[in-house]
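We modelled the chain as a single entity of 156 amino acids. Its sequence is:
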Amino acid sequence: MKRVLMLLTAAAVVGCSGTQGEDASDVDGDVAAAISDINGQFMECVSQGDADLCSSLFTEDALYGAPNLPFAQGRTAIRDAWEKEMEAGMESLRLMTDEVGSFGDTAHEVGRYVVEGPDNVHLDHGKYIVLWKRTSEGWKAHREVFNSDMAQGPQD
């Protein structure tokens, strides 16, 4: 009896996962393409020094988790965070997506980043995770956390 219940539970879970009526790989591919396009906009807004454009790519109530800082919450705070990063010398951002998965109106992305400053000086590199939300305006970053892979010097 236990075995039958386990099989029925497993079948129910498998039956409820993914997107009905569509091949999940096609759905994830469409979502991955949309996220790739938005990541291109992130890279462009950095090269243009446009913190307003960067923040517009987030949901209104997004959380942005930069290393060693409290979360920036909402587009205004996120705009301020991007502006500070640009004022600190960030002129170029490269995003490399390693994984995208989706379920309905939510998606996740795992990737790596490289930040460069004036004259292509390497400033930082690391990894990130973004939770994406499909909105009436399209896909928007809803939760983002990233951290550096570079060793930090001694703390004072």
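As a brief sanity check on the tokenised model: Strands lie at 58-65, 72-73, 92-103, 106-116, 122-135, 138-148. The domain at 24-148 is CATH 3.10.450.50 (Nuclear Transport Factor 2; Chain: A,).
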